[in-house]
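Why does this matter for the project? Reviewers at the last site visit asked to see concrete outputs rather than summary tables. In response, this paragraph embeds two records directly. Each consists of the residue sequence and, immediately after it, the corresponding structure tokens. Nothing has been edited or filtered.
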Amino acid sequence: MAYSKHTWLARIGENLNRFLNTTTGQYGIYQSAPTSISQEGTPFNVTWMNEMEDGIAQGADRISPNLLINTNFLSPINQRGMTSYNTVNKYGIDRWRLYGGSPSLSVSASGVTVSGGSILQPVENINSLAGTTFTLSAKKSGVPSESITGVLSTNTVASSTTYDMEFYISGNYVNVRLGIGTWEWVKFEVGEYASAYSPRPYADELAMCRRYYQTFPGKLDTPIIQYKGGTGYAYYPIEEMRVTPSVSCSTVIAYLSKDDSNLGEGNAVGGSPNTIAASRGGVGAGAYIEMTDTVCDAEIY
């Protein structure tokens, strides 16, 4: 909610120090007459109050939303479930892709450690802000946070310090890259200065990550609801994703019933951004399709 700045005005009038004695009905003019002053104190006047209002308004304006997802590296979303990743151009912790050289990413209580390369997050839907000033700030373990500011374009805005980080437009996305080090958090925002970092609630962060990647460990049973050309189709609802996901399962098997032996392997694909479509040819009277260890991937590559 935006802060509405107030303008403090001086009190103007005549005999402002005149007071009424309600017992005698007489008026008197009074002034402060302390016996001693050990400290004068800060004056209370419109100048000071309006300076305070300016500071509050400026501070409120500087609180900008973080355009990155999964930025609290002390407690990151990690649906893939591994403590280390080292395959270039593949994602490790949610929304962060390993990039360049021979990258390695490991997760610990100290943060996310990157070595041999970088991690990169493509950000959607902000290319229209080319020409706008952005700020990228981050915190490494054991040292103060740092930030870089620059105009968003295809030219790279990079740190000139020991903090290896940068941002730039690449195709349809804006790439934010973090280099070697152990990172605690990162923030990317509109504006010419870095506002305070505040992590989102874990549940909110997870929901944002699942727009790009969803896992379903174990077995999913879903009834066959359509037959076409001798093939039975089952549709399993999922949380809506960025695009129709690619779907992989360790097994896709058709059953006549949940207690019967399987009728053979099938396959599964993304039916829409919020559906998995599983199928098995020649199932005849088959009633169920079971998917095991299902992964839905709608990440940006």
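We now turn to the second protein, recorded in exactly the same manner.
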Amino acid sequence: MMNKEVLLVNIDKVHTTPMGLERLSKNLRLDMDDIVCYLKDKVLDERCLIYKRGKNWYCEVDNIRITINSYSYTIITAHIIV
């Protein structure tokens, strides 16, 4: 299975920590109840570019880069890219 497929098959395992929620909210300037669900939807978007470097997946769509640990499926961070 290709890396992208591995992530997509395991999308239900994607999560973050309480500290991660704060970081994601700040970095993306979001004020919403379920940031993880929002980011999972971004990853599942057919336009999302998903690639793996080292231990992390990087998902880029709609000027957002999401970093997900490939072993624990933890969203580490996300940033607005220009």
